[in-house]
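FIELD: query
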Amino acid sequence: MKIDHEYFLMRRNLTIESIIRQNNITSYKAYCLLMSNLRVRAPSSEIFDLAFSIVNPIGVNDENKEEELRGKKNGTGKAPARNASVKKNTDSTSQKKSNSKASAGGTRNIRKKKPAK
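FIELD: result
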């Protein structure tokens, strides 16, 4: 007996899109095979096609991906641009604070143990 597809998605807090991305699904047949192995009724092909088009949009993005792939294959691909607004983390201030505590020599608040009666 197979579980309903909507119930399966709801219980596992999943979406069809997330399943397609995580499992690199490229066709409705592959999705049906995956659902069959999980003992879940597959959705209609229209629902799958809609989700697949969201994950893999057709248009300008595909042309950019093709250009990037060609550049990587030829060894002429550009390195990704670094974000100039990202500030480097310098721990100089935290080192100064820790050094000043160490030089103070035991001025921490530590409760002394009372002798047992």
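FIELD: remark
The CA atoms of residues 25 and 79 lie 29 Å apart.
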